[in-house]
From TrEMBL:
It comes from the Bacteria. Residues 68-362 form the Condensation domain. It comes from Mycobacterium rhizamassiliense. GO terms for biological process: lipid biosynthetic process. GO terms for molecular function: catalytic activity. It holds the Pfam family Condensation. This is Condensation domain-containing protein.
Length: 464
């Protein structure tokens, strides 16, 4: 499993990229107005993108993935797989634009079953040319804000995808992979489709807005968010160390750090269980204790992504379904056991808040919340994923699969702790300033020290 920015990607070979046909572009331009509201996640993304562009800046916005398949790519079979994928998922059928009153309007392609992309042979390309091709993926205010292609090598080819966050979150990559992989080999074998109908992201968006409109000051979800914000002095979390001032042309940075190896990971998991927590609770506890050692903060306030695909109705949806769950972890004088137990309890108690994006709290005033300090940059987040449990997670190394971030300026720090078969890694995206780089390294070393301290305190004989 490879992680990093697109700058770290070194694939090269003969490139074939798929582009919407002229008739498909015409259908998108003539798309019909639709009453389904934009989701809160999409609304925030579009507004942030437009605001940053008005300032001469860009945003990190692409979900990039790649994996290898043995042999020579069968172009007609891949064309069939990509068209089937695009037609199945309605996240690709819509485009959005701003109305005169700043309302975001949705337009839907009338006949999505006719959406067609066709291959174009771009010849042999260098890694830098391929990176530019990916980064040139249209922006979220364009309908075709996605790129699909292959890079043909001598005896294998790489499938790459680059999709604007408007249409996909991190977990969408697994669904997209399964779709394309399944339909490609189904087409090669001339077998009937093995895919079930895809859930509707448009329906998810409408349901989300309907549910949120039903909330009042007395709703438990609003009260829980209120308690979190009040405890943090009326504001959302911020990264605890300085990040420096980034210019419009400052690139984003993504670094990958090893935290613990597989044996240490098993011991760390045993320590988490002994504390009444899961591995994830231990991850949050280490972050909280690291922040306490760096800043002296008595309580950790954080946000962690929550995948709303836990609702089986949306399990195989492509789209932005991820939201955030708040974490409150007391750290002053706390042992790891106490912090891990508190972290797990906080996460478990707040999972229902994943259905209420914090963006909603910034857009809709609630009397019980009082004034909320609107952040001047995106909020930091800490994610944990056990890569081993993802579909095909056991064979990612054989597939030479990778997930890459684009190199556009990030205004905050986003962290992903990924447990893999050989190690547990920490991936950090941050503004590419010297100040931020030094701060991130301080934070990572403090995190690594916490993980090592916990795993080394457990005897080496530990079952997985």
């Amino acid at each position: 499993m490879f992680l990093g920015t697109v700058d770290d990607w070194t694939a090269e070979g003969t490139v074939v990229s798929w582009y919407p046909t002229a008739s498909t572009h015409a259908s998108a331009a003539e798309a019909l107005a639709h009453p389904a509201p934009v989701s809160h996640q999409q609304s925030q993304h579009l507004r942030y993108y437009r605001r940053q562009v008005s300032r001469g800046r860009d945003i990190p916005r692409l979900c990039i993935g790649a994996w290898e398949i043995d042999g020579i790519c069968d172009i007609p079979a891949m064309t069939h797989a990509l068209n089937t994928h695009l037609r199945r998922h309605d996240t690709y059928h819509d485009r959005f634009e701003f109305g005169g009153d700043e309302e975001i309007l949705r337009y839907v392609i009338a006949e999505p079953e006719k959406i067609t992309v066709s291959p174009k042979d771009l010849g042999r390309m260098t890694p830098s040319q391929i990176r530019k091709l990916i980064l040139d993926t249209p922006d979220p205010l364009q309908w075709d804000c996605f790129t699909f292609g292959i890079i043909q090598g001598t005896d294998q080819f790489t499938v790459y995808i680059a999709i604007d966050h408007l249409r996909a979150d991190g977990m969408s990559a697994g669904v997209i992979f399964l779709d394309i992989q399944t339909m490609y080999f189904t087409s090669l074998q001339k077998a009937p489709s093995a895919l079930t109908p895809a859930p509707s992201h448009r329906e998810y968006s409408a349901n989300q807005r309907s549910y949120i409109r039903s909330l009042t000051d007395e709703s438990p979800e609003i009260r829980s968010w209120q308690a979190f914000l009040v405890a943090n002095n009326g504001s959302l979390p911020r990264f605890p160390l300085e990040l420096g001032d980034a210019a419009a042309d400052t690139p984003g940075a993504i670094d990958v750090f090893d935290l613990i190896d597989d044996e240490q990971g098993r011991r760390f998991e045993a320590a988490c269980r002994a504390a009444g927590a899961r591995f994830s609770g231990g991850v949050f506890a280490c972050a909280a204790l690291a922040e306490h050692r760096l800043t002296g903060a008595a309580t950790y306030f954080g946000l962690t992504p929550f995948d709303n695909r836990r609702d089986l109705a949306h399990a195989t949806a492509v789209g932005w379904l991820a939201s955030f769950v708040p974490l409150t972890i007391p750290t002053a004088g706390a042992s790891f056991d106490e912090a891990a137990s508190a972290a797990q309890a906080s996460f478990d108690a707040n999972t229902t808040l994943g259905a209420v994006p914090y963006y909603h709290l910034l857009e809709t005033p609630y009397d019980s919340l009082g004034p909320i300090e609107v952040p001047d940059r995106p909020v930091p987040m800490l994610s944990y994923i056990d890569i081993r449990k993802l579909p095909f997670g056991h064979s990612f190394d054989g597939l030479r699969a990778g997930v890459w971030g684009d190199n556009r300026l990030s205004e905050t720090v986003c962290m992903w702790v990924n447990r893999m078969h050989e190690r547990t890694q920490l991936v950090v995206a941050y503004p590419g300033t010297d100040v931020a780089r030094r701060s991130v390294r301080r934070y990572v070393e403090a995190m690594r020290a916490e993980f090592t301290r916990v795993s080394d305190a457990i005897p080496s004989l530990c079952s997985p």
